[in-house]
Amino acid sequence: MEPACSGTPIITIRGLNKTFGAGDTAVTALQGIDLTIFEGEVFGIIGLSGAGKSTLVRCMNHLEKPTEGSVTIAGKALEALPGKELLLARRGMGMIFQQFNLLMQRTALQNICFPLEISGVSRAEAKKRARELLQIVDLADKEKAYPAQLSGGQKQRVAIARALAANPKVLLCDEATSALDPTTTRAILDLLREINQRLGITIVVITHEMSVIEEICSRVAIIDNSRIAEIGSVRDIFLKPRTDIAKKLLYASGRLGESLMGQRCLRIVFDGTKTTSPVISNMVLECGAPVNILFADTKTIDGKMVGYTLVQLPDSDQIIEKMKKYLTLHEITYQEEAYHV
Amino acid sequence: MFNPQMLQLLLKGVWETLYMTLISTVLAYALGLPIGVLLVVTAEDGIKPLAPLNRVLGVVVNVFRSVPFLILMVCVLGVTRFIVGTTIGSTATIVPLVIAAAPFIGRMIESSLREVDHGVIEAAQSMGASNWQLITRVLLPESLPSLITGAAIATTTVLSYSALAGALGGGGLGAIAINYGYYRYQPDVMWVAVVLLVLIVQIFQEGGDRLTAACDKRS
Hints:
- The complex is a heterodimer.
- By secondary structure, chain A is an alpha/beta fold.
- Helix content of chain A is 34%, strand content 29%.
- Chain A folds into 2 domains: 9-242, P-loop containing nucleotide triphosphate hydrolases (Rossmann fold); 251-338, 2-Layer Sandwich (Alpha-Beta Plaits).
- Chain B is mainly alpha-helical.
- Helices cover 81% and strands 0% of the residues of chain B.
- Chain B contains 10 helices and no strands.
- Chain B starts with a helix and ends with a helix.
- The mean pLDDT of chain B is 93.
């Protein structure tokens, strides 16, 4: 069950199932999804490839029709809308993609005009708005460039401007940075954050990279095997991941080897309140046994520094107990974990 | 051989060939465009899947395409007579040319439209584009370079069909080449007609290529 949260819901998903195909060849993409996304938040949806996250985001604007369940956007249940009104509802949501999906035969400016043209805005008006948007995404000098002449980051900026053209309330980002290098990714994420803060647009971020979630999201849902495995604030999930999939996604960058299978490890968490003393060194000295540091990371989440260290424990239950006691005594948060990452 | 009479004959041949080819191509394109669009739109992965229509259309197109042009010309003599009032001459040839070229052009348009990336279509859908807007503002403009290349190929194919029609009472350079080269043993006239045909094809092809290059913004 998802935890209660404050605010006005803008996207509400209830009992959503999505199956592709029928009969013996049917494939379940999503099962029993309940999700509420609130106005003005940056919500992350993370999962491995094939987990169903892209299908989920496509259900949000009915590019994929859910097999069962309801999707309500700003008070309107999409499944109840007749065709024409669904098109109108989609205009209230922008979407950007991994492969940018710009119209190759149109210039940057004409691409941004596209959503305005199809909703009947006059050409002159559309151009004026498109120029404003090019300013926002910092590409004012590229209005006459065709997509083929732009870099990946520039293409995504045009795509963002295009997605914002019709003044949407929600921006859906489907792996929007997955085709970009780290520096460009950061710049695009900064832009998305700015859009969220300046324009108050709710942003839904689909990704397979935890770093993207950490960078801009306030809450996150972890999708695994067609279901929501875990949902909560990014900080909570970062500090206390409950499910295997959450841990797997968190440590993905640590490249823990298969050799660690079944070994006893300890996840020592630093939440920004007790990091002045050398905790691990002191623990090792006190207990008279070494630990093996497998992975360590610090992040700034919601403006606060948090970090954790993953240590492999000695092969002695007695020493392990001693170490745990030491940590408890010093009020350090820890979690014992057997690794199967 | 190049007396004024012969020159006039050749000039008339060029004119008739161009007349048949261009009128037929334009008409066949007008018929082929909706065929091609329907084939793409109603396909299983299209924006409005309609399996029965798609299958019927596909079969009809294949039937017309599998009949060799000369035989098709004979098959549709009745239609030609009904529409034009005669089965001889350039205008009469336009009827079988259109019937033969439209399904061919439909397939070419289908393959051009299929080149449009599915993601781009999805993006337009996410912006609330209707199916009609998807066709007129995404599928067709995005595949324009490929459509122009296809149109150039279609034109040269129609031109070669029109030359074939010369064997069955059609006009134009084809008729001249066949009549003088085959029936009258005047190969020199035939060669001139052939060279003129080659030149016309070259011009169409070159023009098409240049137009394609000019409007291709994809790379």
